[in-house]
Automatic annotation (TrEMBL):
Record-level Gene Ontology MF annotations: GTP binding; GTPase activity
HAMAP family listed in its UniProt record: mEF_G_2 (MF_03059)
Upper classification of the organism: Eukaryota, Metazoa, Chordata, Craniata, Vertebrata
Residue span(s) of domain Tr-type G: 67-352
Keywords, in A-Z order: GTP-binding, Hydrolase, Mitochondrion, Nucleotide-binding, Protein biosynthesis
One Pfam assignment: GTP_EFTU
Keyword GTP-binding appears in the UniProt entry: yes
The species this protein was found in: Camelus ferus (Wild bactrian camel)
Localization of this protein: Mitochondrion
Protein known as: Ribosome-releasing factor 2, mitochondrial
Similarity-based family: Belongs to the TRAFAC class translation factor GTPase superfamily. Classic translation factor GTPase family. EF-G/EF-2 subfamily.
Residues that, per the record, bind GTP: 76-83, 140-144, 194-197
Gene3D superfamilies found in the cross-reference section: 3.30.230.10, 3.30.70.240, Elongation Factor G (Translational Gtpase), domain 3, P-loop containing nucleotide triphosphate hydrolases, Translation factors
Length: 776
């Protein structure tokens, strides 16, 4: 029992259960206080020979060929049931001994203290398990808009996805966001209409919303037997069978699969036959091979078409992303999850069925992408990798192409939420957790050695048919990383004392490496540390984690909106810098023009006049560009970044011996002079807002949005509710959740997403500037 320590439990406190050498996938969270007589913790998986034989051991996870591996993600709008569905999947696949509940705070994948307190997923969690001979690497992703990056970087390395929908709401705001992300990465997916037992659930409404809002073609593989309170099972349209879950079964493991018969279920059989015929016609329209089969052998009677032929065709159209299979059930009531698992293995692709162009350059050598980094107090950085080719073993030296450095993998682990099992090797197509890579970050490409990267570069050059520069070769070899969104909120953060500043810097450095959407910068005027995040909840979670995980009682300043600035007219400025340092004279004269850019751009568009561009050296050109970029970091009105501006350099006179730093300084000062002369405009972040509210409270919600400078686009009807869709400035929506709860007695919900930056009107701009200067 040396590998398992059990501490005594009294009625007031329950200590954490620590499994020997078990590291945290997310930083280890304290177990929630439980009532007396509740068993200690949950056994996610049993160590061999220690705890019963009814739960599978992580050591027993199969290592099948690549064709039987599925890398999938669970994605959805917040509160659609992703984590509950994941919990049921783990239970039915045999890796947990009890069903966890989000409300009780005892689920496998939501184990951070912040997640259990709020009942939401904050960080994506990976679990590995097997199902009927298939190995499934599953990632449960967040649904909250503040943590969109978590979804983005997980979808980057997955081969398929399950989109979960609330059957009473259909497609919601964040559903659209994650669907677009999946489209960007060209990921095949299946839809699971969850919460079919919920009051107001409507199968037809949810399917129609998928068709209209997502512009997808749903393939109805199942029909519900009853809806809301009458929901008791599903009909398998492909096989014309009904699946009924026993009301006596508490955990949903017991269900009956019976063929539909004319004698016992005439009405259901008729509906299913019609649905199957419609499904066959729909698939035949999308797949020529299947159409030839149907028209040739089974044109007279679709009932004679074997289910296996139909399933194969459905798989082809799913992988081609021309349609999406739709299943239904209720994860909370333990219905419909086992057929979902079967659909994952049957219709979603294996790693070898995904086409990755870069693999041809590596010829079987190691190629992997680091997509997530976590910090463990004992083991240091833990790096999650998707292996595209080759094999990873412990003590293997690997080369990081992005960082141009070589590191050694100390240990190799198989992820299971906050538990991990050490393994001797892992092959292509899998997701691995590595220990020992101290310089690897999210989005880095990992290969076996520098020579392997050079050999791949030579293949790119040879097979590409023309010479490439060294830089372009490296770019061709790099796997596409993750696009990190710009933060929209910022606030100052201060340690309890100056002595604790190094500890705060270390904590923020670790958290930044884990979460690339968190930006930290130093205010040049006040010297304060500034946190930049994706939303109020994001900043709140970071603050809480610093307190719990690093033991620092930090103080946050008021939340502020990340404004931007631009100019409205063209201005020209000249500046001369003349300095003598030691016995060297540095003399630069700059003549440039700043004007509004023709297209929207976060970075300044830099142009050189013909007379200047020809004679300018590469070092001087880089110095000019550095000066322009540094000047546009802080605008003249609020000190916010300047965007949508084009800079044209008309003249640059440099005295011999002048350093590049002086050139940058002169250009920067000249641009600041030009920006001050121009007519300036503040840009504010505009948010897409979607409020779901009952008819009774619609009027007060609309009146409140009007006071917040809201622009209502449309009001939709969703079952018995109204959905208000519009745009609202971010500055006006801070603290909106509390106000909305008060207005609607807690019955309304809302979702926010950054739309774009828009110009403020003159009155609002002068009010903002007055407030910043302390005049109002």
């Amino acid at each position: 029992m040396s590998s398992l320590r059990i501490f005594v439990v009294n009625h007031k406190n329950i200590c954490s259960l620590h499994i020997n050498n078990t590291c945290c996938y997310k930083i280890r969270a304290s177990l929630k206080r439980l009532k007396p007589h509740v068993p200690l913790g949950r056994n996610y998986s049993s160590l061999p020979g220690l705890i019963g034989n009814d739960i599978k051991s992580l050591h027993s996870i199969i290592n099948p060929p690549v064709a039987k591996i599925r890398n999938i993600g669970i994605m959805a709008h917040i509160d659609a049931g992703k984590t509950t569905t994941t919990e049921r999947i783990l239970y039915y696949s045999g890796y947990t001994r009890s069903l966890g509940d989000v409300d009780d705070g005892d689920t496998v994948t939501d184990f951070m203290a912040q997640e259990r307190e709020r009942g939401i997923t904050i960080q994506s969690a990976a679990v590995t398990f097997d199902w009927k001979g298939y190995r499934i690497n599953l990632i449960d992703t967040p649904g909250h808009v503040d943590f969109t990056l978590e979804v983005e970087r997980c979808l980057r390395v997955l081969d398929g996805a399950v989109a979960v929908f609330d059957a009473s709401a259909g497609v919601e705001a964040q559903t659209l966001t994650v669907w677009r992300q999946a489209d960007k990465h060209k990921i095949p997916r299946i839809c699971f209409l969850n919460k079919m037992d919920k009051i107001g659930a409507s199968f037809n409404y949810a399917v129609e919303s998928i068709r209209e809002k997502l512009k997808a073609k749903p393939l109805l593989l199942q029909l519900p037997i009853g809806e809301a309170k009458t929901f008791k099972g599903v009909v398998d349209v492909v096989c014309k069978e009904k699946l009924i879950w026993s009301p006596k079964s508490d955990d949903g493991k017991d269900f009956e699969r019976k063929p539909l018969l004319e004698m016992s279920d005439p009405k259901l059989l008729k509906e299913t036959t019609e649905a199957r015929n419609a499904l066959i016609e729909q698939v035949a329209d999308l797949d020529d091979e299947f159409a030839d089969l149907v028209l040739g052998e089974f044109s007279e009677n679709f009932d004679l078409l074997p289910a296996e032929k139909l399933q194969t065709a459905i798989r082809r159209v799913t992988l081609d992303q021309t349609a999406v299979p739709v299943l239904c059930g209720s994860a909370l009531k333990n219905k419909g999850v086992q057929p979902l698992l079967d659909a994952i293995t049957m219709y979603l692709p294996s790693p070898e069925e995904r086409n990755y162009e870069f693999l041809q350059w590596y010829k079987g050598d190691l190629c992997a992408l680091a997509f997530k980094v976590l910090h463990d107090r004992q083991r240091g950085p833990l790096v999650f990798m998707r292996i595209y080719s080759g094999m990873i073993k412990p003590q293997l030296a690997v080369h990081n192409i992005n960082g141009n450095c070589t590191e050694r993998i100390c240990r190799l682990l198989l992820p299971f939420a906050d538990q991990h099992i050490e393994i001797p090797s892992l092959t292509a197509g899998n997701i691995a957790l590595t220990v020992g890579l101290k310089h690897t970050s999210t989005g880095d490409t990992i290969v076996s050695s520098k020579s392997s990267a050079l050999a791949a570069a030579r293949r790119v050059e040879r097979e590409g048919g023309k010479k490439h520069s060294q830089n372009s070769e490296a770019e061709r070899l790099l796997l596409a990383g993750v696009e990190i969104p710009e933060p929209v909120f910022f606030c100052t953060i201060e340690p309890p004392s100056v002595a604790k500043q190094p500890d705060l810097d270390h904590a923020l450095k670790c958290l930044q490496r884990e979460d690339p959407s968190l930006k930290v910068k130093l205010d040049p005027d006040s010297g304060q540390t500034v946190l930049c995040g994706m939303g109020e909840l994001h900043i709140e979670i970071i603050h809480d984690r610093i307190k719990r995980e690093y033991g620092l009682e930090t103080y946050l300043g008021p939340l502020q909106v990340a404004y931007r600035e631009t100019i409205l007219n063209s201005v020209r400025a000249t500046d001369t810098l003349d300095r003598t340092l030691g016995d060297r004279r540095h003399l630069v004269t700059v003549d440039l023009e700043a004007k509004p850019a023709e297209t929207s751009s976060l970075l300044p568009v830099i142009e050189f006049a013909e007379s200047v561009g020809e004679d300018l050296s590469q070092a001087s050109r880089e110095a000019v560009e550095n000066g322009i970029h540094s000047a546009c970091v802080q605008g003249p009105l609020l000190g916010s970044p300047v965007q949508d501006v084009a800079i044209t350099l008309h003249s640059l006179v440099i005295h011999p011996g002048t350093s590049t730093a002086m050139i940058s300084a002169c250009v920067s000062r000249c641009i600041q002079k030009a920006l001050k002369k121009a007519d300036k405009q503040i840009l504010e972040p505009l948010m897409n807002l979607e409020v779901t509210v009952t008819r009774d409270y619609l009027s007060p919600v609309l009146a409140d949005l009007a006071q917040r400078r809201g622009n209502i686009q449309e009001i939709q009807t969703r079952q018995d509710n109204k959905v208000v869709i519009g745009f609202v400035p971010l500055a006006e929506i801070m603290g909106y959740s509390t106000v909305l709860r008060t207005l609607t007695s807690g019955s309304a919900t809302f979702a926010l997403e950054l739309s774009n930056y828009q110009a403020m009107n003159p009155q609002d701009q002068s009010t903002l500037l007055g407030r910043r200067r302390g005049l109002s």
